[in-house]
Structures are given as structure tokens and as C-alpha cells.
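User: Hey, quick favor. My workstation is busy. Could you predict this chain's structure for me?
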Amino acid sequence: MATEDKKTKKKFSRRKFLQRGAIIFGGTVVAVIASKGPIRRFLAQKAENMDFPLLVSTQEPSFWFEVLPDNTILYKSTKLEMGQGIFTGLAMLAAEELEVALEQIKVVHANTANGVEDSLGTGGSNTTLSLFKPIREVAATLREMLKAQAAKQWGVPVAGIKVENGIMTSGNHKATYYEISTSTKEWKTPETPELKPSSAFKYVGKDVKRIDLKPKVTGKPIFGIDQTFPDMLYAVMLQSPYIGGKLKKLNTQEAAKVNGVVKIVEDGELVAVVAKNRYAAELGLQKIEAEWDVPKKWQQAEFEALTTVGLGTDVRIQSEGSPESLLEEAPNQVFKQEYRTPLATHAHMEPHGAVAHVEKDKATMYVGTQASTLFRSAIAKAIEAETEQLNIETTYAGGSFGRRIDSKHSEKVARIAKIVGKPVHIFNTRTQEFQNAIYRPQTHHVLAAKIGENGTIEAITHSQATPDQVLGAIPANIGYTLLGADFVSAGHGASILYNIEHKSATLWQNKLPVHTGIWRSVGMFPNTFAIESFINELAHKTGKDPLKMRLELLAGNEQINQRYKKVLETLAEKSGWNQPKAAGIGRGIAIGNDRKSIAAAVIEVAIVDNQIQVKKVTQVLDAGLAINPEGIRMQVEGATMMGITAALYEGLSIKDGQITATNFHEYPMAKLSDTPEIEVIILEGHTEPYGVGEPPLAPVAPAIAAAVFDLTGKNLRTLPLKLS
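Assistant: No problem, here it is.
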């Protein structure tokens, strides 16, 4: 980096700024600086006085789109496709402005060597919201550049050129995008064109099937664990089966004798068996004799007690009025309850797997990651390489739910590959996926409310105890310096939404001896369970209908109430809330808000052989502009099933210092036979999309708990919900 003057503008190398977008035309890469959206939010401010080059060398391309010889458009996505269907939604947005058929958009994962850098990563139900405008801007710019070049060649005005399916025409003139793209290397980037109004959309708002269905149902090797290369070796790491266990003694003699094992890697705390095939690697691992130094053999009860309101450091994250004073003044009018959610894991179908090849002057890793830019920096540091020497080739991921944002597993893969000197495929055993994971933290909630005359709620407080989630993914000193608390995830959703004059929320930061991290819907899941369960109990305590009570508590803030009222009223109508229930059925309701979206559910349950069975789920979602309603319905259905699993089954147990689950048979989850009738209602009427993947999960557990109470009279306040 060179500077003209410390107080004036700076010249950064192309690798030092986040290129907003670029387009490949006949081998020439044209940079396009669009509006300052989330992908380069930080560096956009830093780059105000920088001279960005218009033309970028093909040796260092940073691009979004490439025009291919068959006149299709290749879109290189910085966002991970992990089952949420984002490739389809992004293709629809690109096709709108490019004026091509949806089939003409091909979507692949970008790599870090020549793709757009994306420090935001994939998560938080943020992809469509963050890219809704940027991807259309870059696509529209590409379209206008091609039209301008065609107009120049044909000697006609740009306004007279029509485009359909990537073919431009004007009078007797006709050319494809690709033909024009290869006709020159001198391109002028226009001002960002005006975008289509929503009324002109051809694809957005219509049901579109997943564009990645075929490679998945035909078993194409598209996942990280599928990758194979010539001379590739397989490795599996030795990992402690104990919480906090450190390697004390090691004997690898028998492991080294296993047929197919080529090397036992020992590099500090890192021990791995490297073999010619997976079977030999796993067998070699089983032959290792290891003795572990275990600081404490935790038991379930004492582990749970670590997360308790009143322990650790407290941070006030909401404070309106004087709720504590009102509660103290009238103890006889105070209603108080406690709720708990357990330690859990992500349990995605594809175990962690990656391929790394570290050579003298370069390195490549194939991995399904939610944060390729962060991975690149961390892995390069782990193998003592320059960031520019490492290329991350992102693959599809077989589920993630926040787990694939952590780079530690991939860092070890790269270290092993560097030692071995050949491509190395490393995979977790299923037991390691459960016992050596990053976990959803357990939580404890205490809620209290002062009930006034006529059942009015005059004050409410929420105290939540939890270990961190998001701060586990960034350096602790940075996280606490900038955030002060884990507001983004652990504290996410802890504040009281309802229009109660006196209210507060306090976050108690606890520590656990295991690594906790982000899990789908982050803090919204436990907080919504606690708060909405408490609201349902308050409704019963005051003799009010739970849905009507929510409408009352939301009244007074019209900006909030307008959308919530529509969601709740639609839910009441579609679920038959005001209609009689069938015999043996309990009905419950809950609502949640996340990523600007509002999701509410009415759930009906039955009790069969003393087991809770979910019979019907009605979900209403206001997620802004619906890009692909079919994709949204699939997301809501998936979130609903994950919510049912979390409500009725999920939870890790600890005994003698170990996570007891070693595979799915010891970690119950909802099965296909547990799938209820699910009705999804999508509300429209907005000009931009909001988050979809996480919001519908939030209301499921509290709605089930309310339905169980409605049927049995039992209030269940600890997940997973059990009658005995």
C-alpha cells in the first residue's frame, strides 16, 4: 500500500478493497461500483477518495457475471447454497434486469481467487435482503453496457435497442449478448441504471422450482465431503471425547500398522491418521491409544447450573420506564415464571469435510463454508501463507444452520495437507460431529410482570442467562469492545416487543466449558420461547384470549401494530382460531419477529401414548416482497420442522465429562412420520424482501407449549417439552 499523503487519499491495491462487482467481456474484466450495500459497507466508507480502476487485469479478476459463448450468463455467488434455495432467488433477480430467460442464468459458487469478496458471509437470513438491490444494479449495468456497445457498432440510439432472452435487436440489426461482449475490449461503465419497478417483474413473485434440484437428486459430487482428486489421501483427526480434555499420552504404533495408513501426523495438539482411503483412516484412528487429562468430569445437573440468571456479568439491553420499581411496590400483583432451553447441536446431514492441497507457492481448499473470506484469512495464517496465496473453492453444503461459519476444522485440514504435501480429504466421524462441535448454548429465563386492574400488564421484565453465540465466531476482545455484549445473537430477541410502558431486558453473560456458537435463529429461538410462553401464561392468568391479548399489547404503536395486526388477524382466519376444536386437540399461538420479518403460528397437538404429537401448523409470514413464494414455503416448512424438533426432541446430555450422544440414535429428532399438516400463508405488499430462513422457527416451540397447556392444563417451561 502506498500513500500520497497521510491526510489525503490513499491508493490501495486491488486486493485491498471489496470490489462491488465486475463483468467479464471477452476476457476483459470491467469493474462496476454500484451502490454501497452490505457487502462492502465498511470499505465503502474508506474508499470514498480512492481511484478505483475501471479495467481490471484478467490476472486478478473480481467478478459477478460472465457472458458465456452459448449466450448464458454465469453468476458467481459469494453466498453459500446450503439447502435454503438462495441460488434460485438470486438467479431470478439477475434475470429480471438482464432481460434473459431464467434458464440462461447459471449460478455457481465464487472462489476467493477471482470472486467478489464478501465479509458479510451467509447467514442471519440476510442474503436476499442484502443483495436485492446490488445484484440488480450490476445486472442492469451489464445490460446497458452491452446495449451501448451494440448501439455504437450499429450507429443507432441506445433507446431504440430491444432485448429479449439476451438477444438485442434494432431494425435489421441483431446480436446476442456474447457476440457483442467479444467485439471490443474498451468498455465504459455507465451510471447505475434505473431499476425495473416491481410491477414490471417477470419472475419475481412467481413460483419457481429450485435450479439446483437436478444435481442433488442425481447424486452429483457437489458437496465438500464428495470432492476427490488424483493422489488424494484421506485423514481423520484425533479429538478429545471429553469436555476440555487435553492429550496426556499417545501411542500410535498399532495405528501406523493398519493397511492403507501412510502417515500419523503429530503437530502440537493436532494428531491425525492419513491413509489411502476413508476406511483405513477410521480404522487407524480406532487403533490409537490415547490418555486424556480431564480437568473436570461434568455431570448434567451441574453443567446446567452454570447458566443461571444472577451468575456472571449482567448487561441491560432494554430499559423503558421503571419496571423494577413497580414490581417491588406491589409483590402481590406480580406474576413470575422461569424457562429453560438445553444445550444442542446443529446435526446437519453432511459431516464436516474438506479437501486441502498446500503447495510451495499456493494452496487450495474445497469446503462448504458460510464465510469464505474469513476462512481464507484464518487458514492462510494457520499454514503461514499470504492470504493471496490461498484460494477457497466453496462447495454446496449439506445443511449448516450456523455451524459452517467456524474455520477451526478447516485450519487443521490445511495444516495436515501442508505436512503431507498432497491433496488431503479430512472428514469428521459422526461421533465427532456430536462430541466435538460448536453448540447452541443452553439458556435460562426469568420473566416477571405486574398485573393491574382489569388484567392490564403494567410492567414486565425479562432476564436471560446464556453463554455467547456470535462472539465465539470473532475475537473476544473485538467483540466485547464493539458490542459490549452478544446483542446480535444471545441477546437477539430478548427485548420486549409489546407496547408496555414499563419494561426491561437484562442479559446475564455466563461461561461454559464448551464452545458455543450460532444456531439457526440465534437468540430469537430461546427468547421467543420464553417471552411468548410467558405471554400465553399471562393471558390465562388474566382470563384473556391469547390472540386478542397480543393485539391489545401491540396497540399504540401503529408503525409496529399495522403489520402485526394483519399477521395475527390473517392467522386467526386461516387457522380457525375462533372455531371449535376437534375432540382431543389442543391449540396454541405464538408470534416472533426477526430480520424485519414477522412470523406467527397456530399449532394443534394431540397426546398419544403420553407423547406430544403435532397435528397441524398454520404459519403466517410477512417477509416483505416475496421473491420466490415456492422457495419461501419450503423455508417455512423446513423451519417449522426444525422448530418441532427443537421443541419436542433436541437436547444434549452430559455424563462423566462427555457428551453422551454419538450418533442420531442418541440424539432424537423429528422423523418424516412426525410431519404434521403445514399450511403457509405469505403476506405481500412490500417493495423489498426481508429474512425468511430463521423467523418462522421462532414461534413454533411456544405455540406447541401453549397447545399442550390448552389440552392438558400443564405448563411445560423447559425444552424439550415432555409430559413426564
